[in-house]
Amino acid sequence: MAFKLPSLPFGKSEAELIPQGRLSGPMLWVIAIMVALTVIAAAAGLAFSNTVRNASDALTGGVTVQIVNAQAGERDRQAQAALRALRTTPGVAEASLVSQHEIDRLIEPWLGAPAGGDAAIPVPALIDARMRDPVTGETLGALRRSLRTVAPSARVDAQSTWLEPVFGAIGTLRWLTLALVGVLGFALAAAVLLAVRNALGANRETIEIVHLLGGTDRQIARVFQRSIGFDAAGGGAIGLALGLVVVLLLGRQFGGLGAGLVSSGALGWSDWILLALVPVAGVALAMFTARQTVLRALKTML
Amino acid sequence: MSSSTEGEIVQFDNVGLRYGTDREVLSNVSFTLFLGGFYFLTGASGAGKTSLLKLLYLAQRPSRGAIRMFGADAITMPREHLPLLRRRIGVVFQEFRLVQHLSAFDNVALPLRVSGVAEREIAKPVADMLEWVGLADRMHALPAQLSGGEQQRVAIARAVIHRPEMLVADEPTGNVDPDMAVKLLRLFEALNRLGTTVVVATHDVHLLKRVPDSLIMRLDKGRLSDPTGALRYPPRVPRTRAELD
Question: What sign results for the dihedral spanned by CA atoms A49, A54, A55, A57?
Answer without folding.
Answer: positive
